[in-house]
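During the second year of the project, the team shifted from modelling isolated chains to modelling whole assemblies. The rationale, set out in the original proposal, was that interfaces cannot be judged from single-chain predictions alone. As a representative example for this report, we include one of the complexes processed in the last quarter. Its constituent sequences, exactly as entered into the pipeline, are reproduced here:
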Amino acid sequence: MKNRTVQVENLARVEGEVALFVKIKNEHVTEVQLKIFEPPRFFEAFLRGRKFSEVPDITARICGICPVAYQMSACHAVEDAFGVEIEEPIRALRRLLYCGEWIESHTLHVYLLHAPDFLGYEDAFGMAKDHPGVVQRGLRLKKAGNEIMALLGGREIHPINVRVGGFYKVPSKQEFTALAENLKWARDAALETVLWVAAFSFPQVERQYEFVALRHPHDYPFNQGRLVSDKGLDIAVREYDQEFVEEQVPHSNALHSVHRDRGPYLVGPQARYNLNFDRLSPLARDAARAAGLGTLCRNPFQSIIVRSVEILYACDEALRIIREIDMPEKPAADFEPRASTGYSCTEAPRGILYHYYRLDERGVILDAKIVPPTSQNQKTIEDDLRQLVQANLKMSKNQLQWQCEQAIRNYDPCISCATHFLKLHIENQ
Amino acid sequence: MTPAPAKLLIIGVGNSYRSDDGIGISVLHRLREQVPGEIRTLEATGEGTALMESWKDAAAVIMVDAVRSGAPPGTIHRLDAHAGQIPKRFFHYSTHAFGIAEAIELSRALGLLPRRLVVYGIEGKSFAAGVGLSTEVEQAGATVVALMVNESHTC
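Output from the structure prediction step:
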């Protein structure tokens, strides 16, 4: 094989529409482009002139898979601007809601989108015919996440109960306790999931990414913390724009986000895990060890194990919150709008989601910036593909194409979010 | 067939903040005023597993969503899940890799497909961020409301 191009259009089992273009010349990969076709979604422009109170519900519509992430980042950024302090019961309830979204989003990816790659199925339907019990377990596990969202978010999708300062209404202690029964089943199922995926075969790949995630003084990160990396980054969220820049590239409608000096970086489950292993619950840490993961995981294909460990953590953490919660006296903190700017990052299932807002004295949005996790990972995904193709030039076209698709799915990319959207065609030349 | 309204579920799928993608929700709102109160109705984003969960106990499901198959805007499609595979490409504009078509096929693989499942697709024109429907799509919506009311009488 001397010159060839691998073109994957309409990539299956990722969120949205994306195409991959790889060019090989004299046995060297000369070009890798992850192409995102969808027009930018202009949500940032759509937000200008809107009242702060509308922001959580409007931004939640950017993504059907991670609406909670958008709501949380939006709330925290506006609260940062208005100087609102969020007290413990509300903070714990926000973590509980986030647990619901992680369980739901990660389980969908692990069971229905990613596992078929490792078991040699073209899609989840083939897998479901041969392994109906496994698929049913995944569906029920995901439902445990939906139930948290339904109770605390007001409904399963596009939660309507989240507001700046807290919630519109907090369910009763009895309603939370009722959730716990199914969550105990879910925690066992999540542990089985970790052991199930740990037995898959993984390509031997080690990548030297800069991992970037939130780090909190005592919790595995959801809503709060400093932005840290394994290469020495340690900043407050409001310093984000001083460290990271967004670059426009001609082949994609999504902006590429890079570190100003060090270039591409990685956010998401693997980054969180590598930077916060010590913050996982003992059960999640033990499961990770039993799955053969060290405290540091550099193989992107093993992200499916890390994601499963995070499902287990989210079930465990949800149960802890429900067990220990003191019900808040009121559902939301009081505050007054003021002319100001606010910043926040929260840990969406796919990694840090940055929101910035500038508001006037009535709380009307003057300016907004949203950087979703997938646009932060896009350049790193391209780098992975470049290495993968270079190392496997002797592979048949079909096999190489399949490996590339699998490598992209390692990141559970949400192109809907990244173009502030996604497509898959496969064509070899 | 004896009517059994409690076992019928009507689902409107869409996103009102993405122009014509909101037609499923708009049709559902109008249908709610025209069908008996005991018929279950549901607003959905199109996320597949949530759809599967919603139709678990239903004998019959009628759904409506915006589609993009390349036909002229406002074209109405009627897809019967028991007549064959639902073409995935119809629902590209769902923001989900695991959407309506996948939910139907996974249900079929697991033997969980309701006895009757019909999807009305309305060809969209614009799916840009924003509110409001194209004229062609809004007109087609009115026709689909009537078609779905009629269809509900036969479930």
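Chain B touches chain A at residues 15-18, 44-50, 52-53, 92, 94-98, 102, 105-106, 108-110, 128-130 (CB under 8 Å). The longest helix of chain B spans residues 135-153.
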